[in-house]
Design a protein that fits this description.
The chain has 436 residues and is an alpha/beta fold. The chain is built from 14 helices and 14 strands.
Length: 436
């Protein structure tokens, strides 16, 4: 349904909330074992300095991680992420003797982006597979459906693949934390760009009708307060909708000169295609990061997406400026070796590699190789460098800051790839902390 500016769209109001995916997306895995010794690997506890802490799923030679992804269904484009993750772990296992001597076992379950299925698969991973940690459960509603359980079970739910701000601002779920820049921070970057380049912008918005869509839209609204930037029309869609063409036709009549596309890949691609077809409406098109992959743009035709803008925080394997970058060369080489048949130039693969590296470094930093040790380490990251991130972006968390990454840089699509524009924007410095 159309939101504040205008009456509801014909065909029924969109009132329900709570079905989205964070996209864009992120992850990673690492190891754990007890500080100073451990009991057995199935529900054991540590001895020595880490006495009593949980060592389920980790031994001196192995660590088991579990993940849920939409390998099928409307958000299946994100199924590329675990391929990048697995390539990283296979590389580390084969050539680096695992993480601190522990080989990573990485289990991926398909939840189809359906929260009830996520609950079922997460329980199976925790109770039957006895995983050490849940690594990168994908999507806002699926993760919302499982974080109470993960925290009750005291299982780390690390670097969830969603930018929902709740996963960094909430103080009642210490075992759950995000990774990618949250949606409020991302929205702030778009607002900052408009303030500088289109200070009187009239904005039309398409958004997914759930916590993901609300989070990014709400962050954008707050970021433009006190400016002359105005939202002139909003249209929402459900993840179960067949298309968003009707919403796009309505938005085209809004008179907006900026279009903010807050959609997951399937619907973002539809919106891009619809925008190209509506020749008498040519707004500046902002597509949110979770759908900025070339795999989303390519089906629309690169000729039809020239000038589209977005924001990012990790290196694009299609960008020639990283051709001689040591991490990019390593990533492409190992993707071909350990994930043959998968294109290293797909950004979701690079994302997976990056978040897996982040997990590796986080577990290495844990004083106790236990579930408690991983929980404490992920909430005490200080300037941790992940080579696949853009220069100047590091991981930082603290007792009152559950957002590892809050910096992004704008980019524009030109030719057949994205080109970075401007400078990295540290939203912590520009806007202050993200509130709940």
């Amino acid at each position: 349904m159309r939101r504040p500016m205008g009456s509801g769209r014909a065909g029924g109001g969109r009132v329900r909330r709570g079905t989205a995916v964070s996209a864009a997306l992120l992850l990673a895995v690492t190891t754990a074992a007890a500080c100073g010794g451990r009991d057995d690997g199935d529900g054991g506890t540590a001895t020595g300095e880490c006495k009593g802490q949980q060592t389920t799923g980790i031994t001196d030679t192995s660590v088991k991680l579990g993940a849920t992804y939409a390998l099928s269904g409307p958000a299946s484009a994100y199924g590329a992420i675990p391929k990048g993750i697995k390539a990283y772990f296979d590389y580390v296992n084969a050539e680096k003797n695992g993480i601190d001597g522990r080989k990573v076992e990485y289990l991926v379950r398909d939840d189809g982006y359906q929260p009830p299925k996520t609950v079922e698969e997460v329980r199976r991973l925790v109770e039957q597979e006895q995983v050490f940690a849940l690594f990168q459960t994908l999507g806002t509603p699926p993760t919302m459906a499982t974080w109470d359980y993960a925290n009750q079970q005291k299982v780390p739910q690390i670097f969830v693949a969603t930018g929902a701000s709740a996963f960094g601002a909430d103080d009642k779920h210490p075992w759950t934390i995000g990774w990618q820049p949250n949606y409020v921070s991302e929205a702030r970057v778009y607002a900052q760009n408009l303030k500088q380049n289109k200070p009187k912008a009239k904005v039309a918005v398409l958004f997914q009708n759930d916590d993901y869509g609300d989070d990014l839209l709400g962050g954008f609204k707050k970021a433009i307060e006190g400016t002359e930037i105005k939202i002139v029309q909003e249209e929402s869609y459900e993840v179960t909708d067949p298309s968003v063409e009707a919403q796009m036709r309505d938005l085209a009549g809004s008179g907006a000169d900026v279009f903010l596309n807050i959609a997951t890949p399937k619907f973002a691609s539809q919106a891009l295609a619809a925008d190209a077809k509506i020749t008498d409406w040519n707004p500046m098109h902002i597509v949110n990061n979770v759908s900025a992959s070339v795999t989303v743009l390519k089906p629309v035709g690169f000729d039809n997406v020239q000038g589209v803008v977005s924001a990012t925080y990790y290196k694009d394997p299609n960008d020639p400026q990283w051709a001689d970058d040591a991490e990019m060369k390593l990533y492409k080489e190992k993707m071909k070796q350990y994930a043959p048949g998968n294109d290293p130039n797909v950004p979701y693969h690079a994302f997976g590699w990056a978040v897996a590296t982040a997990f590796h470094k986080t577990l290495e930093a844990a004083e106790c190789k236990t579930r408690e040790g991983l929980r404490d380490a992920m909430r005490n990251l200080k300037g941790v460098e992940v080579p696949m991130l853009l220069p100047g972006i590091t991981m930082n968390t603290g007792p009152d800051d559950g957002f590892p990454l809050e910096s992004m840089q704008m980019m524009e699509f030109k030719g057949e790839r994205w080109e970075l524009t401007g400078e990295v924007i540290d939203t912590r410095k520009e806007f202050g902390p993200v509130g709940h």
